[in-house]
Design a protein that fits this description.
mainly alpha; two-stranded parallel sheet; nucleus; Nucleolar protein,Nop52-domain-containing protein; rRNA processing; RRP1
């Protein structure tokens, strides 16, 4: 049950039919014996899902449906199949975004937030597999992706929203993760924002990324952590360390690394320096716009000056 028939039921005017279709879709996606969904069928399926959400009304109904739709991503046991489903979400969202009216836009922002969170949980479940992370990054930054710096068809509001919520949702993921969750590879996960910051033609987009993502994260990583509980698992470390509890993004700071989860957690101040060095390297690349280069160098200098002042 896929493709056109299910898409038609998902977009039905009757809520009971739509609800039944969502349940059928969940069963279908979780069935490992099913053949992978073809690209044309995936497009039809996602158009149906998009309009299923379009017709949802009342805040509680919208919230529940947004959660149910995002959870579909985690019912798929195969990571490649889950990523194909996620790709369908982003392609459809970007394509349909300009047609969303002001009365519906907030619920679609919520849907994007739910999918970002589910994506982090999917990648965490896959132990932050680099190839899976790279596929996710590619779908965000390629032509038609929500963080593509060169595609003028992509609404800038999506990039703004992703900048606003990205680290918040990663923090939520790490806060609810099991003690066996490997550390989140921040350099890998932030790569799409590094690319967009470097290559965006609009100063407003750069400013949003820096103010809502780079600076808050770098600030959180600069907070000193007590060495007394370093040998404890991240979640227990959070409970035992009062300083960690009071800082921003405590779960993420206590369980993050640069780009290789197998090497274990890196101290926040050390990780901050590595991320700043990566920022400097990207600023130095030939594809980086001159206007962005100056701002990235300035952020690097201001941040390293702050570090030097703290050490002094």
């Amino acid at each position: 049950m896929t493709g056109t028939p299910l898409a038609k039921y998902l977009a039905s005017n009757d809520k009971k039919t739509r609800d039944k279709a969502i349940k059928s879709l969940s069963v279908f996606l979780s069935d490992d014996s099913q053949e992978p969904i073809s690209k044309p069928d995936m497009n039809k399926l996602w158009k149906g899902i998009f309009y299923c959400f379009w017709m949802s009304d009342k805040p509680l109904v919208q919230q529940a449906l947004a959660t149910d739709l995002a959870e579909l991503l985690l019912t798929i046991n195969s990571v490649p199949s889950a990523l194909a489903f996620l790709s369908g979400f982003w392609e459809t969202t970007v394509r349909e975004w300009s047609g969303i009216d002001r009365l519906r836009i907030d619920k679609y922002y919520m849907l994007v937030r739910r999918f970002v969170n589910a994506t982090f949980r999917l990648l965490g479940r896959a132990k932050w597999d680099k190839s899976a992370c790279d596929i996710c990054n590619d779908m965000l930054t390629r032509q038609g992706g929500p963080l593509c710096p060169t595609d003028i068809r992509v609404p800038t509001s999506l990039a703004y929203h992703l900048s606003d919520i990205f680290v918040d949702e990663l923090e939520k993921t790490m806060a609810t993760a099991s003690e066996h969750m490997p550390p989140a590879p921040l350099s890998t996960l932030l790569a799409p924002f590094f690319v967009l910051a470097a290559q965006t033609p609009t100063s407003v987009t750069y400013k949003r990324i820096q103010s809502e993502l780079f600076i808050p994260l770098l600030s959180a990583l600069s907070s000193p952590q007590s060495p007394a509980h370093e040998d404890q698992p991240p979640q227990k470390r959070m409970r035992l360390d009062p300083d960690l509890q009071q800082q921003q993004y405590p779960a993420l700071v206590s369980n993050a690394c640069f780009d290789n989860p197998s090497e274990g957690t890196i101290k926040g101040v050390v990780l901050r320096k590595k991320l700043l060095r990566r920022l400097f390297e990207i600023a130095s690349e030939p594809d980086t716009r001159d206007s962005s280069r100056r701002k990235m160098y300035a952020l690097f200098k201001d941040s390293t000056d702050d570090d030097a002042g703290d050490e002094g």
